[in-house]
Structures are given as structure tokens and as C-alpha cells.
Amino acid sequence: MERGTPGASRPAEPGPCLSNLRGAEPAASASRLSADRAQPGNPTIAVAAVLPAGGCGERMGVPTPKQFCPILERPLISYTLQALERVYWIKDIVVAVTRENMGTMRNVIQKYQHKRISLVEAGETRHRSIFNGLKALAKDQPDSQLSKPEVVIIHDAVRPFVEEDVLLKVVIAAKEHGAAGAIRPLVSTVISASADGCLEHSLERARHRASEMPQAFLFDVIYEAYRQCSDYDLEFGTECLHLALKYSHMKAKLVEGSPDLWKVTYKRDLYAAESIIKERISHEICVLMNPKDDIEPIDHLLKALKNELNDVKIESGALSQVGRDIQQSKLEKCYNFVCMNIMTSDFQETRNLLSTLEESSLSILYPVVVVSVHFFDFELVPLSQKMESLVWVRDTAKEMKKRNILLHGLIIEYSQVSKMLLCSECTLCTIIV
Description:
This protein is of the alpha/beta class. Helices cover 33% and strands 23% of the residues. It contains twelve helices and 18 strands. The protein has helices spanning 76-85, 102-111, 126-137, 164-177, 219-228, 231-236, 240-248, 267-281, 296-308, 322-331, 348-360, 383-401, and strands spanning 19-21, 47-52, 70-71, 74-75, 90-97, 117-121, 151-154, 179-185, 191-193, 199-202, 209-218, 253-256, 284-289, 313-318, 336-342, 368-376, 405-413, 420-423. The strands form four sheets. An eight-stranded mixed β-sheet has the order 1-6-5-2-7-11-8-12, with helices on both faces. It has a six-stranded mixed β-sheet with strand order 14-13-15-16-17-18, with helices on both faces. Strand 5 (90-97), helix 2 and strand 6 (117-121) form a beta-alpha-beta unit. Helix 5 packs across helix 7 (240-248) and helix 10 crosses helix 11. It is elongated and about 80 Å long.
């Protein structure tokens, strides 16, 4: 099979049909900065990940499988892939999807520029899908271009908020114990009901835990467990740690996970996930300016922003270094920019910023907010120039919105910064105090 041509051939029967969509380089991330040098605590072993993504979303009650449901106009599974791609030491990510959704998955990978992703055909159940992913990593598929890892992570495609620290913990624990999995305290008491619907007994909540994802295993341990697995377990089982215990006699090390490991299951969870994503991408603002400009009004505005937004990190940089600033901000998950224009009507600084944002593809993953602030001395600027400014911001905002860049314009009287006199139609009007 040719590289980069996913699904060029598939077996007639459902199985681990491998489609390789691997990129040349790992996705940019904060972790990637240290990829070229060993870090204390980071695994020096070969690690891969398997994501079963063949569910139909029956419990969510929507026609679209939940892994493809949009959050901020981007499929849920894309956020999960991004979380794994940030971890540079995960060499391969194998996603198991149904045959009918294979094309949709390829489109997601290509549109959002995901790297190191390979596709296999999902089975009829969760365990069968995971088994197909493991077969691809074990080179059981003739066309496989993957190498067998020492440790494999199994994660859910609909748990988008997994962080590197918990992935590292389960991998290290799996290396030592053979198997490991994230857990969380039980929220509700678990009870057992009799056949006639009456209470038989309840579990002591303090002694039991909820099994979460991610889980990690020595590859040979979990692969052999699946090879020995009964049809009943493949059909009705859901717990990978149980298979490792039952068939490979490995007692998994349990690792305390974070509250963000929850699984998107119901429709209301989509709204909760959207709220979390919005909160995360709104915690930093990058203020860009021309170093030759008068900084007095800018200092005033920065102080106002910091006073009003106490929980937001605000950083400033020079427009002459905009490319480097954007790259650094991207690694720090900044998607909010304030562009300062002092006593100018050509919007050159804002034009440069927008051009650089488009070239950086930053807005592919999340909406990018740009506030173009213009300081004018209204006694010197004619009304026609003010109107031209408003029209330019309005028209440009319409075009930028198509690229997932949300442009807002703000015109401020230079000599009286505390008062906003005019704003464009696309501006979220706020008095700068």
C-alpha cells in the first residue's frame, strides 16, 4: 500500500485494514520543544496509542457518531488527536473507525493537519476494534508500515482533555507492572439489583474506584491477552485491564487521574466540553504593537486590561517580531490578539498580523480573536477617514470570519483614552476604564 493513500485496498471481511496518514513531522506542541534532548522522567521506550472510534453514539441520541459531533465547528475526535499529538514520545496513533466513516476520518485528519495517524477498520464491538488496532501495530497486517512498540496506550476517542502528565504516569507504571490505568473516585454509590428490581446489596463507595482512560500496557501483555480472549469477552467486555488480569495474569497498577478525564457520552456533555475549550483558549492575550509608536496610550490600555481581566495572562510584543511572537504564543495556546495602531489610517500593522495568522494556519484548530485598536486624535482626523476605518474593519471582518479569524475593531480618542467614542459594527462594545 502506498504511503499517504489511505484505504487504497481493504479486505472483504472486517479486519485491521491499515490506512497510513502519517505526517513527516510531529505536530508542534510545548512538548516538542524538548524532543531533541532527553528529559528526566520522560520514557525512552517506544510508545504507540490505539483509539477505538467505531461507536455509533446511541446514548447521545443524535444521528452523527459522537466522535464526529462538532464542538466549535470542529469534530470532537480532532481535539483528542491533538492532545495525543502534543506528546512527542508517542510515535504512532492508530485510530479504529468503521468502514462507512473511513472517508470522514480521512477528511478530519487532512483538514486539521493531524500527524502520525494511521487508520484501521473498526470491529463490531469496542474490544474487537482495539484488537484490530493492536494487530496493525504487531505487523499482522501485510501492508503495515508501523513498528511494534514496547508500550501501547489505549484511550477513548471521546476523552479530549487528557494531559501529558497522566499519559506519562500510566506508561511508566505499565513499564514496571505490565499494565496500568487511570482511575477516579466514584461519584455515586454502585448498587446491585435483583431480578425483580429490588436492592440486593450496595458497594462501599470509599473502597471502589471508577475505571477511566487512558490505560497502558506492555504491548506483548495486552496483545497476547486479546489473542486468547474468548468470543464472549470480545463481544460483551469493556474493560481492558480485566483482560490483562484474566488472560495474562497481570495486576494493573492504578493511577489517580485528573477530573478532566471524563468521557463525552450524552448530548449535554458536548456543551460542557465546548465550555471547557472556550475557557482554556481564552486565558491568554497577546498584545502586539509597533516599537516606534508612542507607548503612553498602550500602557494605559494594558493596565486597564490587566485590572479588568485578573485571571487572564497578558503578554506584549513588537509587531516587527510578529512571526516569532505568534509561534511562541501558539505553543502557549494563545488564540487572542490585540493589535495596536497609533495615529495611522493604513492599518498596516493589523494587515501584517492578519496575513501572518493566515500563513501560520493557527485558526485551523481554534477560532482566533483579533481586536484591532486604533488611537486617533479626533481633532486632527477628518470624519471621512474615521468612516473609512469603520468600513475597512467591517469588510475585512467578514472575510476573516471565513478563515475562522474573528476580527473586531476599536477606535479610541488618543487624547482621552478612558473614553471610547466610536466602534465598528463588528465590535463587542466595551468601555475601557
